[in-house]
Amino acid sequence: MPSLVAQPPSSSQASSQGGIGSYYQTKTEYLQLAVNRKTQNLRRLEAQRNSLNARVRLLREELQLLQEPGSYVGEVVKVMGKKKVLVKVQPEGKYVVDFAPSIQLSQLTPALRVALRSDSYQLHSILPSKVDPLVSLMMVEKVPDSTYEMVGGLDKQIKEIKEVIELPVKHPELFDALGIAQPKGVLLYGPPGTGKTLLARAVAHHTDCRFIRVSGSELVQKYIGEGSRMVRELFVMAREHAPSIIFMDEIDSIGSSRGESGSGGGDSEVQRTMLELLNQLDGFEPTKNIKVIMATNRIDILDSALLRPGRVDRKIEFPPPGPEARVSILRIHSRKVGFLPS
Length: 342
What we know:
This protein has about 350 residues and is α/β, with parallel strands linked by helices. It has helices at about 10-65, 135, 155-170, 170-180, 195-205, 225-240, 250-255, 265-285, 305, 325-335; strands at about 70-80, 85-90, 95, 115, 125, 140, 185-190, 210-215, 245-250, 290-295, 315.
């Protein structure tokens, strides 16, 4: 009877099995690389698909907006009850309209730009304020870095402007407790180079207010109504970025006495601009953290209507520096200057 014990493979059989194993291992690695490439391509195609789907959704939304009928642009005049709003539409007139459920009643404030449906006149959207690019460039984005320590020889002026500007902004409750109105503005007058602009920037720094600087000459426009429109948009921008300080340099450019100007068209346009400024000073609420600082070196030619109390509540003079003030200014500017030992 033959033996059933397994015999070890011969050398030829072992080499044959090793060659087949190496072949299948190489084939497996090749197929694995192919699978990895296909997986990467699949992921890339899925990312492209998601991107295209997002673009399709965006285009559908744009198409839907384009297919919708246009809207009228209006301005809120006042709220009429809990469900009605009085809106002014140019040039049609004023209408009492409903507003969409998505809009809160507290959002509807006077002078707010809104969109009305052309078919039902329903107020369905709140629009951003329209501000001239020239006006928006007047705003200093950051709080100025000037401080009171940089102002020399103006201790009395610093004390006065703190009372008129800084105190109402930082502690409005004091005025409410006393039952008195907050000051609206202050006029800084004196020769050029006496520190009017520097002190205004320092006040904006210590009150943490946006500083909006505008020169009176920038508001003098050759087209009728442009100057007054810029004044309106200037105060709109100040309300949007409150607390803010409007610094109007060279106010005599638009605020000169009406008896001083002639009867030409340019002078009449300057007068319209000044009347709009007076209207804004009378109209805006002082508790909105908007303060106006005006500066001029010709207070003698300013219109009396601009200087009356309620518009300009304090007039601060900036005289040329005396001997003590000059020493103080010299010390400030020589802080970082090195001196040789005497």
